[in-house]
Design a protein that fits this description.
Elements lengths: L2 H19 L5 H17 L10 E5 L3 H12 L3 E5 L7 H5 L3 E2 L3 H6 L3 E4 L4 H9 L14 E4 L5 H13 L3 E4 L2 E2 L1 H7 L2 E6 L2 H6 L1 H4 L3 E7 L3 H29 L4 H8 L7 H11 L9 H18 L4 H15 L10 H9 L14
Parallel strand pairs: 1-2, 1-4, 2-3, 4-5, 5-6, 8-9
Antiparallel strand pairs: 7-8
Protein name: 3-hydroxyisobutyrate dehydrogenase-like 1, mitochondrial
Pfam family, one: NAD_binding_11
GO molecular function, one term: NAD binding
């Protein structure tokens, strides 16, 4: 049996015995348990490869399914959990194993990724004392939360993980469904830089890693990213409405500005989707409203005013009020259309107003 697997087996047996009788454990048993914890931590420092690293994945939605798929195709053994099992089925068809809880995922994994909806979900799947991943993770294991969440929660998770001899990295991503499918996501990481470096074989399959600093800094970077995107989306849809009212062919207009100073990733990803009335979610309005709400909360904590952020958040909240929270963020055009009593039409330009 390979040494890492032998150590895991010894540790599991020792932990079971120690848990059953820790109140009356002999000094030698305690010493053995402690020694094995050190060996497990040391074994976790070896380079990550498909042959020696078991990976867990919690959350197989729009983003998670594609990201997890890259790891499976690279040869990693995956154990997955999703509350709605049908959303995990494509990964099971690729060879992943289904677990019944986040704790069960972690008990069979060396590195556990999570990408779920809200901070409350993150807390539940990672920190719940009975079913959370941390409760099933062995010393030396790593939690990697890729959800856009609260920086304070990332710090709390890192502290809880450290108390168990484990590691935690906050690693939210940007790039939407296309970035997830293409493996071109921007990954913002916070935590121990050496752990982030060791995880690079996994991260590189999903996108480009950007180390931002200590625990929570990955989340702060992602929130700043969301602030930038929010204002960019407002500018994009306002420009499209203006172009149509001015009598321009909006498709030609988008192509014309794409190579100039107004060009942006948002334009590239969503401009022509909007014209096609394709509002399928690469990123849900509901989740964007959550992100922008966290941003506003952090602004209050910092004592700063960002009026563009506040406006964008209100416009997106109006989409939720119309029951459009499960559409993609490009559906912001619907708000501007309602405000101006206009509907964008691809192809035929509208007559200019007089």
């Amino acid at each position: 049996m390979p040494l890492p697997l032998l150590l895991r087996s010894l540790y599991q047996n020792c932990r079971h015995s120690y848990t059953l009788s820790n109140s009356r454990a002999s000094n030698s048993s305690v010493a053995l348990f402690t020694l094995l914890r050190h060996f497990m931590a040391a074994a976790s420092a070896e380079p990550i490869t498909p042959s020696n690293t078991r990976v867990g994945w919690i959350g197989t939605g729009v983003m998670g399914q594609s990201m997890c798929g890259h790891l499976i195709r690279a040869g990693y053994k995956l154990t997955v959990f999703n509350r709605t099992v049908s959303k995990a089925q494509p990964l099971l068809d690729m060879g992943a194993q289904l677990a019944q809880s986040p704790q069960a995922v972690a008990s069979q994994s060396d590195v556990v990724f999570s990408i779920v909806g809200y901070p409350s979900d993150v807390r539940s799947v990672l920190l719940d004392s009975k079913s959370g991943a941390l409760s099933g993770l062995r010393p030396g294991g790593v939690l990697v939360d890729m959800t856009t969440s609260e920086p304070s929660l990332a710090i709390e998770i890192a502290s809880a993980a450290a108390s168990k001899g484990c590691h935690s990295i906050d690693a939210p991503v940007s790039g939407g469904d296309r970035g997830a499918k293409g493996g071109t996501l921007a990954i913002f990481t916070g935590g121990d830089e050496s752990v982030v470096h060791r995880l690079s074989p996994l991260f590189s399959l999903m996108g480009k890693v950007n180390y931002m600093g200590s625990s929570g800094k990955g989340q702060f970077a992602k929130l700043a990213n969301q602030i930038t995107i929010a204002s960019a989306m407002v500018g994009l849809v306002e420009g499209m409405v203006y172009a149509q009212k001015a009598g321009l062919d909006v498709g030609l207009y988008l192509d014309a500005i794409s190579t100039g100073a107004a060009g942006s990733k948002s334009l590239d990803l969503y401009g022509h989707r909007i014209l096609k009335r394709d509002f399928a979610p690469g990123f849900y309005v509901n989740h964007f409203v959550k992100d922008l709400g966290i941003c506003l909360k952090e602004c209050q904590n910092m004592g700063i005013a960002l009026p563009g952020l506040a406006l964008a958040q209100q416009l997106y909240v109006s989409l939720k009020a119309h029951g459009e929270g499960n559409l993609g963020t490009q559906s912001l055009i619907l708000v501007l259309e309602r405000l101006n009593n206009v509907t964008l039409k691809p192809g035929a330009p509208a007559a200019a107003s007089t």
